[in-house]
Amino acid sequence: MLPLILAIALLWALIWWARRRSGRKIARGRGRRNSSGFKQAIQASRPTSVRVPGKLRRDLIRIAGNAQVAERLVSNLRAKHPDRPENWYWEKAIFDLERDRHY
Asked: Of 46, 57, 63, 92, which one has the fewest beta carbons inside 10 Å?
């Protein structure tokens, strides 16, 4: 009985190692997506100039330090969360900075 259990465990470990080495991971849950073309297609279809309320933009630039840092934070959030409204990115960036800086 013990040799059978060891053989099954060894077989499972070899399959796990082979999948990990080849880079094919099984995506579980609905939040994960492949990083190849799906996110890029969503980003390409998104309009580049979306109106954001001036107060959100000013607040984020004030907290971040300059406009380039603020835009970079928002673009990183767009890449991580492609299905959110534009205001959400700016509010989330403000929230993250305030949280990280203990305001």
From this structure: 46
